[in-house]
Specification:
It is a single chain. It is globular, with a radius of gyration of 20 Å. By secondary structure, it is α+β, with helices and mostly antiparallel strands. It binds 5,6-Dihydro-benzo[H]cinnolin-3-ylamine. 5,6-Dihydro-benzo[H]cinnolin-3-ylamine binds next to β1, β2 and β3.
């Protein structure tokens, strides 16, 4: 893979830090020639046999995946620079902060607002899954608002993303404890369904502000996940619709094959607006008659 031999510093002015990730720090930056703002993700390379820094193969995988996807709800890659100690990804700037912060400020969201975010998350994940790519680290911290007053979101941080092909058997202890699916905890094969479980956790948090499987320590959290121990506590869910709970229940399914897929979620009555359902019925009716 060829990279720019030109230096990053020659082309960009670096600004304040706006985030961080696996062995990475993300800073706002400005393209000197055009004034356009981007997010520069500085990924430290692993040197020698050390454990610090990212392996070059993982960095290249993140770059390949980012180059392969283009969707309004997924962060886009603009350029890449390779230096002695780090690789710099020049990414589309999103500056509305993490969805996580937005929920914390509002404690919990109305079902309408949660749905507006979820449809975008599902559309972004559908784009990935249609290309057999699993994000594998979906959580509110990796969902950014485009800007402070917009409801637009973008999925970020493809540092753990993997191309899932039926032959390959991906097992890895990854992701953040409270969001990982049972197959991650049990070190069984991961798949696109692994993302769907995480979407269930995100939905539960959007609607309640509480985390469904979080225990007092990691072991307890992992036990809650593999035993699927959670509840819709009246303290948080007394006003929540049965449809919303049904949407979540279809995702908290241990058997990956039976877990709702991204298209099932997009067509779930809680997500697909009523009028849209009639529209689809009308369209299919016309096709049948002809
Ligand atoms: N681990 C992270 C973390 C972040 C980002 N990417 N990876 C990011 C990407 C584009 C714009 C803004 C950010 C900040 C947070």
């Amino acid at each position: 893979m060829e990279f720019n031999q030109d230096t990053f510093e020659n082309n960009y002015d670096v600004g304040d830090e706006i985030g961080s990730g696996h062995f990475a720090v993300v800073k706002r930056c400005t393209h000197s020639a055009t004034g356009t703002q981007y997010a520069a993700k500085f990924i430290r390379k692993r040197r020698g046999g050390g454990r610090k820094g990212a392996k070059m193969e993982d960095i290249k995988k993140e770059i390949e995946i980012l180059k392969y996807i283009k969707h309004p709800n997924v962060i886009s890659l603009h350029d890449v620079y390779d230096t002695k100690n780090e690789v710099i990804l020049v990414l589309e700037l999103v500056s509305g902060g993490e969805l996580f912060e937005y929920i914390s400020e509002k404690d919990k969201l109305s079902e309408e607002e949660a749905c507006r975010f979820l449809v975008q998350i599902l559309e972004g994940v559908k784009h990935l899954h249609d290309k057999h790519i699993a994000h594998l680290d979906l959580k509110p911290e990796n969902i950014m608002l485009l800007n402070h007053n917009s409801q637009n979101i973008k999925l970020i941080d493809f540092g753990l993303a993997q191309k899932i092909d039926p032959k390959s058997d991906i097992r890895a202890m990854m992701g953040t404890a409270e969001f990982v699916a049972p197959e991650v905890v049990s070190y069984e094969p991961l798949s696109l369904a692994t993302d769907m479980w995480s979407i269930g956790v995100i939905t539960y948090i959007l609607l309640s502000g509480a985390s469904p499987f979080l225990g007092d320590n990691k072991q307890e959290t992992y036990h809650n996940i593999t035993a699927i121990i959670y509840e819709f506590d009246d303290e948080y869910f007394s006003g929540t619709s049965e449809l919303a709970k049904d949407f979540i229940q279809k995702l908290f399914v241990k058997d990956c094959r039976k877990r709702a897929k991204v298209d099932d979620c997009l067509n779930h009555p809680w997500i697909k607006p009523k009028e849209k359902q009639h529209e689809d019925v009308r369209k299919s009716a016309v096709i049948n008659i002809d």
